[in-house]
Automatic annotation (TrEMBL):
Iron-sulfur among keywords: yes
Lineage start: Bacteria, Bacillati, Actinomycetota, Actinomycetes, Mycobacteriales
Protein name, as recorded: Rieske (2Fe-2S) protein
Pfam families: Rieske_2
Protein's organism: Rhodococcus gannanensis
UniProt xrefs under SUPFAM superfamilies: ISP domain
Domain Rieske residue range list: 10-105
Keywords: 2Fe-2S, Iron, Iron-sulfur, Metal-binding, Nitrate assimilation, Oxidoreductase
InterPro entries reported in the protein's UniProt record: Rieske-like_NirD, Rieske_2Fe-2S, Rieske_2Fe-2S_sf
Length: 107
């Protein structure tokens, strides 16, 4: 389920579709975006593909500040998208929040 508003906000689905501590990939306007539900109940969103070797970031290990790509263990910050290793470029991050049980991503 995706629905875009006039402000560029996309409802990707229900918060109940997400598992705390894990990510899920959504196709939004031709882009693959990974959405993560953190242990504190907040959601984060970023490009779903690692720029190093196209690893699936939604399948990576997460903590409160980074997701680690499952292929080669490059970690990307939820706040900036920067890789913690200087050898790999950043991913794009998107503002995300929950409203009335729906996960909303700002494109």
């Amino acid at each position: 389920m995706t629905a875009t508003t006039d402000r560029g906000q996309v409802t990707v689905g229900s918060i109940s579709d997400l598992t705390p501590g894990e990510g899920r990939t959504y196709a939004i306007d031709g882009a693959q975006i990974a959405v993560f539900l953190l242990a504190d109940g907040t959601v984060r969103a970023m490009d779903a593909v690692c720029p190093h070797k196209a690893g699936p970031l939604a399948d990576g290990q997460i903590d409160s500040s980074v997701v680690t790509c499952p292929l080669h263990q490059y970690a990307f910050r939820f706040d900036t998208g920067a890789c913690t290793a200087d050898t790999v470029g950043p991913v794009r991050v998107y503002p995300a929040h929950v409203a009335d049980g729906a996960v909303i991503v700002q494109l």
